[in-house]
C-alpha cells in the first residue's frame, strides 16, 4: 500500500530543498513529536548515495535508524529513495505562487497500521514545514 501526504511551505523551492536535504536541517525536523529527536543525519544526496537519519526518544527509551539508498535525485524537483527494508519513498517539490508544495509518497510497512504510519509521517512533514518557514 502506498500513502501520499503533502504540505505547502511558505518558501521558494531552493530553500525547501535545502532544508529537506542538508543534515544540519534534517536533525531539526525529522521526528514525529516533541519527545523525540533526530540526533544525527548522514546524507549522500546522489543516485546510489546512502542516507541514515537517527530517530530516538529524548528519554533514551527507544530509537532506530531510518536509512537506505537514493535511486533518483533531480535537484529542486524529485527524490526517490529505497529504504533499507525495500520500501520505496518519493518526494516531489513543486513551485506555486511563491510557495512550495512538497508531496511525499511512501510504501507502508507491516508492523504498524496504515493510519498510524500516515499520522507519524504527517507529523514529521509538519515539523519539516515549521523548520523551512523558520529558516526562510
Please render the helix and strand layout as text.
Blueprint: E1 2-9, H1 13-21, H2 23-29, E2 36-43, E3 50-57, E4 63-74, E5 78-83, E6 88-96, E7 99-107, H3 114-135
Helix pairs in contact: 1-2, 1-3, 2-3
Strand order of the largest sheet: 1-7-6-5-4-3-2
Determine the fraction of residues in helical runs and give it as a percent range: 25-40%
Beta-strand percentage range: 35-45%
Largest sheet: 7 strands, antiparallel
Mean pLDDT: 96
**Shape label:** globular
| E-strand count | 7
- Judged by helices, strands and strand pairing, the structural class is alpha+beta
Low-confidence stretches: none
What's the helix count? Answer: 3
Gyration radius, rounded:
14 Å
The topology string of helices and strands comes to: EHHEEEEEEH
Terminal-residue CA separation: 34 Å
